[in-house]
Amino acid sequence: MPATPAWPPRSAPRLFVPGPLAPDAAVPIEGTQAHYLLKVMRASAGFAVVLCDDMTGEWAAEVAETGKRDLTLHVRAQLREREQVPDFTLCAALLKKDRFDLVLEKATELGVRRIQPVLTRRCVADKLNLDRARTLVTEAAEQCARTALPELTPPVKLDALLRDWEASRALFFADETGGEPASRSFAAHPGPAALLTGPEGGFDDAERESIRALSSAHPISLGPRILRGETATIAGIAVWMATGGDW
User: For the whole model, what pTM was predicted?
Assistant: First the structure.
């Protein structure tokens, strides 16, 4: 006798929706999400969808009704509770649009709790479309099966970031001029942490001096090669997650 297929199937699309979700709830879907389900996925009654609300966790649902531009989902059962995310913040200097898009996407996939864009003197970009950035982060979370969205905050100038820094949180500073090997520094300073990475041109001398003057700052090295901003960010997160995160 053939085994009963798992439900919902692993191929079921995932969407973040407003919550809280609960069994038997009716969830209206409109706009781009409805277009995706109706036109791209060809969803019809009974089609399985996995929903997350960034509050209660992950839920199995199915299409109950469809219209021309909207549909209604029926929540059936909870699959997972909202994940416990390591207390790790990425403080990334703004980069050119496509490169910072990559930072947002990969930081989400790698499991950061919070993303704080930073403005430095050598930043080529000085603005961030937060609505667009949150869309990128949400789509990345859907694709990598996160049940918790990283918090994304408006850009802040470096001096303001340092002035208001929480003393109990280690600030690991990816300094291209050198520092303690990243994995060793991460292991030596467990607990709430953040990684600060620079722009295309790096930090200037005055910025570097200000960062190093912070009592909770720890200059780190990410190896013998000079890394581009997006590469340093991805590498630094990966090493921290392997050393003190949830890997």
Answer: 0.92
